[in-house]
Amino acid sequence: MVAEVGPVVLTSTDNSPSKSEQDPAWIEKGIVYNVDLKNFTVDVLTDYESKPVTNCQIAGPYFHTNNGEGIYAMPEVGSACLVCQPSDDDTPFVLAFIGAFELEGAKQDNLEDKAGEVDTETEELEDLVKKVGAPASTTSTGSAELKTTGASARAGRPYMNPGDIMLRTRDENFIALRRGGVVQIAGTPTCQTVYVPLKNFMRHFAENYEVNTPGGELEWTVQRQENDPGGKAPVLYRLTLRDKAQNDKADIQIKMGHVDDDIRYEMVVAPENVTVGDGSVSGIPNFKMTIGSEGDQTVEMQGSLEYTIEKDRKVTVKGTDTVEITGARTLKALSIAQEAQTSHSLKAAVSNENITGIKTIKAAQVMLGPAPGVSAVLGEVLVAWLATHIHLPVWFVPDPKVGALPTILSKTVRVSP
Fold first, then answer.
1. Do 58 and 131 sit in the same domain of this protein?
2. Residues 118, 89: one domain?
3. Does one domain contain both 222 and 160?
4. How far apart are CA 52 and CA 50, in angstroms?
5. Which of 76, 87, 102, 347 is the most exposed place for a label (fewest CB within 10 A)?
6. Residue at 320 is within a domain
7. How far is it, in rounded angstroms, from Cα 302 to Cα 268?
8. What pLDDT shows up at residue 111?
9. DSSP conformational letter for 152
């Protein structure tokens, strides 16, 4: 939407070219010796006349008086500039800032003297560009050359390709718009983000990385070597998630890396009991799982566990397997096959088996009772022996009724001889 601007009404024409005397505009080099932070003006001392020029505005590539719109910078004391005195005798202003030619600096920064040396930022960018396939630069009009000269106006500025645009401070943090579409935003060479348009590739460089949102926090930290007794730099990745953005504390926390000396992974579910800042957990978590550096895993759950597996399940335990259940255990299966290589034991106060078919026990010997010392009688063998056994009758004892013996034999329990 374009704002409508009314007609411009001239209230005075005293400064028009036809009615006012105009002096030639002049431009002079100077040094900023004072900065007015409140009014956004500077005081400049000119080079040749040593004349102070006060309350100078600073020109920029673009500026609009509406709410500070534009591109601008706050100069520092000691910066070299060009002061312009307009032809209509209006207030002088700073037209631009320039560098000074330095012979000694040219010798130190001479490209031939730097042969074999590598600029860290340039080297990392070129390696990244080669990896993702983006051009480091594109053809520009005119010519660009690297040559030796007796004087240099580089003034500490990094090497750039034609068409590159950079914003930079003396602390070496910068924003660089490279030809080919590459963008760098850096606090230091180790702390920067590089955007490459081809393949929409983005790379972050950082020693410590942190993201804060209403939903939680992500941090990737590297502890300083001097804080570790062994001179190492432990690394920790921590992700904290809230259930609701309005909650003060989080519900879930995941840690990976150097959680402690023995733990390398930890996951905690503790609704509104995880402090987002330091990751401390209050109370007993509903769920906690840890994995140690040796692969040991520990799981603590306050709730239930349910698995649904549509296909086969196989568990191989090469050590011991211990299951402790304080409640009841139910096992349902189409068929069950158990095999013990050495021994099998069952200890219970009461054992009930409801078997509608046949139960077969194959064993060299079956022991019944806490301390069995008497062998069980083989019923059919006893019947056969009694049927053929002849003994003398006693007058007051009736003859044995051997024919009734088979009726006392069990029809359901059988023992192999």
1. no
2. no
3. no
4. 7
5. 347
6. no
7. 12
8. 40
9. B
Show Cβ contacts of residue 80 under 8 Å, excluding neighbours closer than 6 positions.
29, 30, 31, 97, 98, 99, 100
CB-based burial, 16-54: b 16+ in 10 Å, e otherwise: eeeeeeeeeeeebebbbeebeeeeebbbbbbeeeeeebe
Sequence-distant (≥ 6) Cβ neighbours of residue 372 within 8 angstroms: none
Q: Which of 249, 270, 301 is the last residue of a domain?
A: 301
pLDDT-wise least confident of 23-37, 219-233, 263-277, 322-336: 219-233
Q: What is the dihedral of CA 144, 149, 153, 156, to 10 degrees?
A: 90
The stretch 215-233 carries a mean pLDDT of 85
Q: Is residue 343 part of a domain?
A: no
| Residue 41: CATH number of its domain | 2.40.50.230
- Find the domain containing 128 and state its range: 103-139+152-205
Taking CB atoms within 8 Å and a gap of at least 24, the contacts of 336-345 are none
Does residue 198 sit in the same domain as residue 243? no
| CA–CA distance, 116 with 125 (Å, rounded to integer) | 18
Sign for the pseudo-dihedral over CA of 228, 230, 231, 232 = negative
Q: Is residue 182 part of a domain?
A: yes
Burial of 294-331, coded b for 16+ CB within 10 Å and e otherwise, reads eeeeeeeeeeeeeeeeeeeeeeeeeeeeeeeeeeeeee
Domains of the chain: total: 4
Lowest mean pLDDT among 92-106, 258-272, 320-334, 341-355: 92-106
Q: Are 167 and 174 in contact (CB under 8 A)?
A: yes
pLDDT over 80 (residue 144): no
Closest of 139, 135, 133 to residue 181, by C-alpha: 135
Amino acid identity, residue 72? Y
3-state class percentages of the chain: helix first, strand second, coil last, to nearest 5: 10, 30, 60
Please say which residue of 251, 266, 301 terminates a domain: 301
- Predicted confidence at residue 6, as pLDDT, reads 47
Identify the weakest region by mean pLDDT among 57-61, 107-111, 137-141. Answer: 107-111
Of the pLDDT bands very low, low, confident and very high (cuts 50, 70, 90), residue 14 is low
Q: Measured between alpha carbons, how far is 274 from 254 in angstroms, rounded to an integer? A: 11
pLDDT at 329 over 80: yes
